[in-house]
Amino acid sequence: MLKPNFKEAKKRTKEDIKVLRNEYVIPEDMKNFGLNKKYYIKTYGCQMNEHDSEMMSAILEDMKYIKTDDYEDADLIILNTCAIRENAHNKTFGMLGRIKHLKQTKKNLMVGLAGCMSQEESVVDEIINKYKWMDFVFGTHNIHKLPFILKQHDKTNELEVNVWSNEGNVIEGVPSKRNSKYKAWVNIMYGCDKFCTYCIVPYTRGKQRSRMPEDIINEVKELIKNGYKEVTLLGQNVNAYGKDFKNLNYNMENLLEDVAKTGIERIRFVTSHPWDFTDKMIDIIAKYDNICNYIHLPVQSGSSRILKLMGRRYTKESYLDLYKKIREKVKGCSITTDIIVGFPGETKQDFKDTLSLIEECKFDSAFTFIYSPREGTPAAKMPDNISKEEKEQRLYKLNEMINKYSKKINDKMVGKVVKVLLENISEKDSSMLAGYTDTMKLVNVKADKKYIGKIVNVKITDAKTWSLDGELYE
Ligand code: 5AD
Ligand code: SF4
Fold first, then answer.
1. Reported pTM
2. Which residues contact residue 464 at a Cβ distance below 8 angstroms, ignoring those fewer than 6 apart?
3. Does the domain made of 6-162 have the CATH classification 3.40.50.720?
């Protein structure tokens, strides 16, 4: 049994990051392990987790498992979990409750926990003590070892806990079964060294480590060959890409430019930290048409006092400077953000500062959250005397303002012709297709299914707060 350890997870040594290319293997006796069996993966949380699930899918299919979208029909269930806030925790344990019933009637069902919650000591202790009926737990660092974890469990028939708390290496050569045929996630880096005081990610995902440029570029080229139109470069803090290279002078500016030169039609990247955003990056985004005019730039708070407590390394003023520079140089760029309300000690004035920043920035949209204490992080020890009601009111007020600007920006798009990558049938109306603009606006379009997978011109006919309606414009 290998349990997670936060003390270890927090460590950052000067040791070189290794790129390991031959770590993914399936033992001979596991190659048919999934024959005539079905798997179901439930993914919580961010795009990184979505992409990790795509890897788990490919690994399981390499063992002959077949995917099912109905967990009651599955022989193997994996919950790929998120630890960022308490409610993500609760959702996972709620789902485990439902699965427990299923397990009582389906004796051969195997159930595993993966992702960021697996990296938390307290979660794994709870699983060991109260969820003994589960079959395996693995973490974010050893996804490629899934065949061995299943093998070990098969041998002992006991709860197999195998979670690494090292800083992590870069593992190449793990396959991926992508959910979309048109747009793909591409990891460019793993982990985070920023240690914002509220955030659990540096503990659950390990040290910042960048993939080698040629591995990323080759992956993008391969995607183009397979008909992909869009890539999203993924990392917790993509602007810091390359800062961990010891013998290579190559950073996010270089990478953006080289990915743009592959000719892929659309490039996005998430998530940006304002601290590492350089002028040159802005110039490159402006220069290349295939780098989307869309930047997700989390601000977290509009109060410089709170930003300091959060350990964000910028002030309200310096964020605004960067924001204005982007708006000026990247014409028509849409900018979205993340905001936390109710950080320990956030006063009415601090919150007002956040509202005034929103007034000034008029973001295209924002993900807004009530602060959730995460065990083991510095902020969890800070005194917090704001009531739950007050926090909820602040969130409500904040959302009202954010939504007001989202709607205003969308209203201005009515009558315009924009390019949309049509991805699938619309969830709201099966006679429509849905897709995103370069600026990441969701558009529902009256169009025949034959347009799925194509980038088309669309005239916007109607605006809502979170989406637009449009018709093909040929
Ligand atoms: N509580 C609330 N929100 C959080 N986030 C990260 N940690 C916490 C937390 N402890 C938010 C931040 C981040 C986004 C992914 O989640 O806004 O940008
Ligand atoms: Fe968390 Fe901050 Fe790292 Fe983002 S930059 S993952 S908020 S520690």
1. 0.96
2. 407, 410
3. no
